[in-house]
Amino acid sequence: MATEVEPHTHIEFHTHDGVGLIRFNRPEKMNAIGALTRRQLGDAIKQAERDDAVRVVVLTGSGRAFSSGADVTEMVQGAGMRTPEDVGNVLRNEYMPMLVRLRTMPKPVIAAMNGPAVGIGASFALACDIRIGTPESYLLEAFVNIGLAPDGGVSWLLPRLVGTGVAYEMFFSGKPLLAADAHRLGVINRIVPLERLEEEVRELANHLASQPRNAMAGAKRAVNHALESTFEQALEFESYLQEAQAASAEFAEGVQKFLARRKG
């Protein structure tokens, strides 16, 4: 049965056949993220993680953008800007829990990049496990253009995907990483025509939803652990995970299916 966080809001959340779809829904603002969006997005991500019926999560946008980033107009209070403490607290207390949850939830998370992903919007795309883009997609770290440093975890996420040289150029220049270059560098897994994006992502999500749940969770834990470990530590952690999986019903079922195919 389909579910929704709230009707007529900045974030839509629906579930169907094991796939939880979270959609930025401010197309008139290119899905800029303000206070209401943050609250509803946090609720949707939390719900997607906790719902056992959701095996795969998809994050996408409405209209022509994935997300244009933070709603800068909301940073203005009267005639002045918010205090630096306000900006820092929003990052620590609101964005950080959402981004960490996306990276660590034991479910595959797919970004369906229907258009530009800018600033904190790019952070949400990069925090996903897989990114499917369109020719219109690009990533832009435009913080320098308004006198800010990178945030939203992008200083950790982006160099690990593209290397420090490309990351520095993006941070220093404020110029976009276009879809073709993002695909060449491995940031975007594949590029599909915009009109086929939802179909392609649905096919991938449905396939992943049919895969052994704990095995996929183990793969995600292994990669996240390996990013911060030595080779030896990664090997040891893999051994620990494999012991758990070898004792699981998923493994027993997988072996039976494998043997049945060989006999056939």
Description of the molecule:
This protein is α/β, with parallel strands linked by helices and 264 residues long. It folds into two domains: 11-209, 2-enoyl-CoA Hydratase, Chain A, domain 1, CATH 3.90.226.10; 213-263. 48% of the residues lie in helices and 15% in strands. The strands form three sheets. Strands 1-2-3-6-8-11 form a six-stranded mixed sheet, sandwiched between helices. A three-stranded mixed sheet has the order 7-9-10. Strand 4 and strand 5 form a beta hairpin. The chain starts with 10 loop residues before the first strand and ends with a helix.
CATH class placement of the largest domain: Alpha Beta
Distance between the termini: 37 Å
Please outline the major beta sheet: 6 strands, mixed
At CATH level 2, the architecture of the largest domain is Alpha-Beta Complex
DSSP helical segment count? 10
